[in-house]
Amino acid sequence: MTEFSAPDAGDFAGAAELLLQADSLLITAGAGMSIDSGLPDFRGEHGFWRAYPALGRHGLSFYEIASPRAFRERPELAWGFYGHRLQLYRRTTPHEGFAILRELAQGMPRGGFVFTSNVDGHFQKAGFVTAQVAECHGTIHTLQCLDGCGHAPWSAQHFDPVVDDARCELRSALPRCPVCQGLARPNILMFSDGGWDGEAVEQQMVRLERWLAGSSRTVVLELGAGTTIPTVRRLGEQLGVPLIRMNPDEAAVVRRSDISLAVPALAGLRALSAALKAAASSPDWRSR
């Protein structure tokens, strides 16, 4: 793999230099990427219960409601939570940062790829090609059979949940498997989840690995990925390529050659875009 020249660590100019030397961009994103679109932050019980006060009154944590057990024992409540999220993600417009990322990826000789733990589908909604997105925890826009009857996951496009927000309970009919008529659940990797159908994600990861194998100067741009569930952070760190990390609270990087930017995703992407334009207009940027 081709070596990069050392960046000026810790600033947007250094990040811009890395991107101008790259032939491909791997975008890795966690929940912080979507917060700027107005989606709720589930960090900590208080943040979760602020978003879903009815679940706070039930004394249910995110870990408890986001589980197959909740669908088996309290399906109207579980689908109240996920049905509300499905409708919220459908009506929310991805923020400007997604367009900035798409422009960055399109400007690379080998393009870009997305690896995200977000289940909201906002990268595709913002115009990213589905074949170049890997959703490691699945997607809320696909359903699967809770009983695992063998029917492949199917689109949730015809499921239009009606939710009593005050009670966080589904008022419309529960979604059913089209084959066995058993209860449907989101095709999302939940907590204590041994029944998740991850075949689609496995195929996405194969495409990602092939894309990485064909690139010689990949840069990872990580946005809003925390350490509580570190799947996204680990992937970027394990590749051994230059990493730019944007996170307002957990921006520390492992290698001194990587770049830490303690900013939210949208503000950081705006500043990075400006730094890139300034660097690209400089006649001597290639010699830095």
In words, what does this structure look like?
This protein has 288 residues and is an alpha/beta fold. Helices cover 38% and strands 16% of the residues. The protein is built from twelve helices and eleven strands. Strands 3-2-1-9-10-11 form a six-stranded parallel β-sheet, sandwiched between helices. A three-stranded antiparallel β-sheet has the order 5-4-8, covered by helices on one side. A hairpin with a 4-residue loop joins strand 6 and strand 7 (169-170). Helix 8 (96-106) runs parallel beside helix 12 (265-280).
Largest sheet: 6 strands, parallel
Number of strands: 11
Q: Percent of residues in beta strands?
A: 15-25%
Order of helices and strands: HEHHHHHHHEHEEEEEEHEHEEH
Helix content: 25-40%
Would you identify the regions where 5 or more consecutive residues have pLDDT less than 50?
Answer: 5-10
Shape designation: globular
Strand order, sheet with most strands: 3-2-1-9-10-11
CA radius of gyration: 20 Å
- Provide mean pLDDT, rounded: 92
Number of helices: 12
Helix/sheet category: alpha/beta
State the end-to-end CA separation: 20 Å
Structure, briefly:
The chain has 288 residues and is an alpha/beta fold.
